[in-house]
Amino acid sequence: MRSSTLPSSLTASDFDADELLLAPQEILLDGNIVEGMAVHIAQGRFATIGPRAELCASLPHLAPLELPSHLLMPGFIDSHHHLTQSLGKSLVFGEPSEIFRRIWVPLESSLDERMLYLSSKLAALEALRGGFTTAVDAGTRSAGEIDAVAMAAEETGMRCVLGLICNDQGGSATPQQRQQILDRAQHHLTRWPSSGLIHPSLAISIPEAASDDMLHDVSALCVTHGAIFQSHVNEHLQAIERSLVARGLRPLQHLHAVGALGPQTLIAHATLVTPDELNLLRDTDTAVAFNPVASSWKGNAVAPALNMRALGIRMGLGSDGTRSDAFRLMDAAETSQRLTIGLATGDSSCGGGWPWLDMATCDAADAAGLSGICGSIAEGLAADFLLVNVDTPEMTPSWDRPWELVRYGNRDQIDGVFTLGRLRLWQGWPCHWDARELMAEIRESAAAAIAQSPIQRIHPTSSTHRSLRRSQYQSQLQSQLQSQLQSQPHQSSRAGEQRQ
């Protein structure tokens, strides 16, 4: 059992109310830690935030829920995820770049609607457990209806920016097919109410997968509907070289040439960017999803996040579906910049801690087109937040709570995860549905789904790799032993000659 410093009488059911008056020890407001404050939540939003005594006096019908040793902070926002890839997440360990060609596209394309739903629900559960109250999904290649992804997100209570892929095969689609894609995109953008958890978005997986007209039109549709346009850009060297050969432009330059960059655009990765391209991102106000764990696990490079931030480029942190742990993501972001920039320049601070916290909350909300909806503890915004236990050895004593969250925070400190004012997870597990039943079904069905996918893996599993290394080592020993045995007669003969 997890220990907690919540009052012993407090349970998940105490938060099951239309209105809540919460009195935590600390609140993260505008990047600062404040004490002695309370939060009134009504109709799924932060209604009032103010001094505890004043709020209690003005709301006599509500008994305050005392939350000693707890921090109330914004829920984290994953600005780049692939919800429908969770069934194969550990299949890509050790794989070289562009794994989407060999693993993700084959896997997603083989998922039926049920498996699409199960994969998305598992990913949403992982995200919530890791402190993410919002995930920006980049779209799926599955033929199944995207409704399955939306349903999974809504059932778990996770806010989702839901991408619809609009590739027209680099322009090889017929005019009729291209119009069908645009019609479907138009329908997707108008399907969900703005007050709910689903926020539609359009995506082109990589620029080369669409014609110039489609890139322009999809981006323009997003402008018209106040949605974001997503694409993977300048992530791998191979894609940059293909773009240069085909068009004489790098992928980011290609998007700019067709008018697809702008405040509506969120590009994932941007790890291989030139100084001119950094200026291009700044001048067009295009946002970037910075994915540090993806870089360390499978990428060709690390995005120059510190340089981007210095230029004023809008940024959010993304997991790229690697692992859904917001605290470890912030730590990876800071560490990546320390190793790639800080060591070479003598910068021991690498931002001072707070930029990574902002990139995982308010800045990520801005990058995802949600700044007026969530990302901060502020009156009028959706009540998407976490209750984090700070009564831990790692955070005792506390001298710099924001930076401590980046370096010492852990998901096992998260007692409560809320979206729209409703408690979704309590101490790591859902309150209103059976997560273990979901996991049991996935264990029974995942093997068949993977087996029927034409996946091509390059790197063996760790157990196989260990066996291969052991076999190679034994072969080397045998070869050395045989060489020694073969040389012994010659050595004996030379020794005899010397004695004579």
From TrEMBL:
Keyword terms of this UniProt record: Hydrolase
Coiled-coil region: none
Keyword Hydrolase belongs to the record: yes
Low complexity bias (residue ranges): 470-494
InterPro entries named among the record's database cross-references: Amidohydro-rel, Metal-dep_hydrolase_composite, Metal_Hydrolase, MTA/SAH_deaminase
Alphabetized SUPFAM superfamilies for the sequence: Composite domain of metallo-dependent hydrolases, Metallo-dependent hydrolases
Residue ranges, annotated region (Disordered): 454-500
Name of a matching Pfam family: Amidohydro_1
Residue span, Amidohydrolase-related domain: 72-402
GO molecular function, one term: hydrolase activity, acting on carbon-nitrogen (but not peptide) bonds
Domain of life: Bacteria
Family membership: Belongs to the metallo-dependent hydrolases superfamily. ATZ/TRZ family.
Protein name: Amidohydrolase family protein
